[in-house]
Structure formats: structure tokens, C-alpha cells
């Protein structure tokens, strides 16, 4: 099956499409003036980006530097920069945001390296077990790009290293290796599923946001998947676009769904990638 994304192209070894900025515009981080209170949420696709975004959005109310109105649940992405004459670029949108700014990305570490290492940009990284990531990504392809094939046909894109956003194994490895930087916190999706309150406390300490037990419990409750879906739909009740967005971003969110999709050969392929990319740097998802 020869599936091609709308406007598919390759930039710096990464598969891109019309939903991404064109060519060097993806490198907009070089033009972005980092504020001291900025926080970047960095994840491979389908690894808990929206979940972490909502956690930080809820934490914003407790941030000592928080001023102005609440932020939207649909946080801006660095790379989703598709301007029209009537639409501002992602950079322009981010420049207008009131501090503290929470911004998301699926871009590899190499695109963020300068902002992270030289500018001290704070980053919360979320990584997920790759079999579950790929399973969820298949449904994202179906919803976002009307992918016409089954999961096994989608998996051929994985083998060909043609997934939108690039190689998730390399991306996870590279962000994981940045965990020793004082301004980078790595969280695993499975940790969130197991003990969200513990993760919220870790994030609060990392961002120096004071959270008592009541605040932690409230944030965890507000970031339950069903609650997040209701929050999104309540932004404009009856809006079919929001219903579609909710379907894209809130599916099962469970651990281990890959067992219902992958053949043994596909499992073996992922396991070999894990041995190649994760094992040498000590990345695992045993929590």
C-alpha cells in the first residue's frame, strides 16, 4: 500500500506534511525569544501530549507568576505553523501569550537543542511505551488523514521510517538523554497512569509551583480523561469540529492495547528497535 500524507516532504531527515511548517520555518525556535517562565511540553506523537498540556494548564492557576486570563485547552504547537493571510503564524501567536507560556512540540531534540541548552528553556518530556504509541498513532492517522488501511498496513510506514514527525525511537532516545539537564524533566506515560498525583507533585517541584495536597488532588481530578473530554466539548457546545477533535485526541488512553493489534513479527520489529535505541541508554517503561 503506497500511502502518502497530504503535502508529504522530508526535511532534515524527518517526514513532514501540510500540517507542519514548510522547510526552515520549522526551525522557528531560533527566532523564538525564550521567557524565564516558559515551559515546553515535548513528546513523540500520541504519548500523552494533551494530557500533560492539561496538567500544566491546571497548574497555571498556582504559578506564582501567573497573570491574566486562563489559557486554552488547545495549547499551541511549535511546528504547526501554517499561516494564511488571515491567520497568524505559530510564532506570532506565542509572542502574544501571557506568561507563563506552555507550548507543545513533537519535534526531535535536535530542533530544540539551542533553546534548551543555551537559553535554559524548561522542558517537560513525556515518553510512552512504543508499542502503545504506535497503536494509538494508527488511529490518529485514521482520524486526521483518513488512512484507508488496517493497522498492519500502517505498520509498513513504521518499517519504512515514514511516520509523520520522524523516528519515534530515535526521538524518545534523544529526549531521554537530555534528562540530566537541570531544566529538563522526563515523565513516562505509564507513571502518569499508575500514580498521577506523584507525577503532578514532581512537576510542581520542577517548575517551582507550590502545590498542597488539595491542589494536587484537584489537578488530578480535572485531568481525568473523561473530564478533559467534557472540558473540550464545553468550549463551544455542539460544535462538530470540537467533537472531531475530541475523537482524535481522546481514545482509550490505556496501557497494553498493542496486544490487540500487533502480530508477533511486528512485536519483534519493535523489540529490535528497543534494543537498538533504548537499551544502550537505559530507557525502559517498567514502572
UniProtKB/TrEMBL annotation:
InterPro entries for the chain: P-loop_NTPase, Sulfotransferase_dom
Keywords, ordered alphabetically: Transferase
Transferase found in the keyword field: yes
Residues annotated as domain Sulfotransferase: 37-276
Superkingdom classification of source: Eukaryota
Entry GO MF terms: sulfotransferase activity
Coiled-coil ranges per UniProt: none
Family the UniProt entry places it in: Belongs to the sulfotransferase 1 family.
Record-given protein name: Sulfotransferase domain-containing protein
Organism: Capitella teleta (Polychaete worm)
Lineage of origin: Eukaryota, Metazoa, Spiralia, Lophotrochozoa, Annelida
Amino acid at each position: 500500500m503506497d500511502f502518502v500524507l497530504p503535502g508529504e516532504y522530508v526535511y532534515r531527515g524527518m517526514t513532514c506534511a501540510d500540517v507542519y511548517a514548510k522547510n526552515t520555518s520549522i526551525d522557528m525556535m531560533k527566532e523564538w525569544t525564550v521567557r524565564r517562565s516558559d515551559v515546553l511540553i515535548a513528546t513523540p506523537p500520541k504519548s500523552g501530549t494533551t494530557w500533560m498540556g492539561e496538567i500544566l494548564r491546571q497548574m497555571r492557576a498556582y504559578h506564582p507568576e501567573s497573570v491574566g486570563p486562563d489559557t486554552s485547552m488547545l495549547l499551541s504547537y511549535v511546528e504547526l505553523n501554517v499561516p494564511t493571510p488571515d491567520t497568524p503564524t505559530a510564532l506570532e501567536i506565542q509572542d502574544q501569550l501571557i506568561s507563563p507560556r506552555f507550548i507543545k512540540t513533537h519535534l526531535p531534540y535536535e530542533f530544540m537543542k539551542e533553546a534548551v541548552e543555551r537559553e535554559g528553556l524548561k522542558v517537560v518530556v513525556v515518553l510512552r511505551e512504543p508499542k502503545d504509541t504506535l497503536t494509538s498513532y494508527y488511529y490518529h492517522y485514521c482520524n486526521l488523514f483518513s488512512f484507508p488501511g488496517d493497522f498492519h498496513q500502517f505498520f509498513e510506514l513504521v518499517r519504512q521510517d515514514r511516520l509523520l514527525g520522524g523516528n519515534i525511537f530515535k526521538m524518545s532516545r534523544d529526549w531521554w538523554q537530555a534528562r540530566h539537564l537541570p531544566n529538563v524533566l522526563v515523565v513516562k506515560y505509564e507513571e502518569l497512569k499508575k500514580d498521577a498525583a506523584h507525577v503532578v507533585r514532581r512537576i510542581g517541584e520542577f517548575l517551582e509551583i507550590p502545590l498542597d495536597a488539595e491542589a494536587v488532588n484537584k489537578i488530578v481530578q480535572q485531568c481525568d480523561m473523561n473530564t478533559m473530554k467534557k472540558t473540550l466539548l464545553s468550549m463551544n457546545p455542539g460544535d462538530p469540529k470540537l467533537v472531531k477533535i475530541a475523537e482524535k485526541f481522546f481514545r482509550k488512553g490505556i496501557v497494553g492495547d498493542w496486544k490487540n493489534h500487533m502480530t508477533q513479527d511486528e512485536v519483534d520489529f519493535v523489540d529490535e528497535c528497543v534494543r537498538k535505541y533504548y537499551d544502550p541508554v537505559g530507557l525502559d517503561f517498567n514502572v
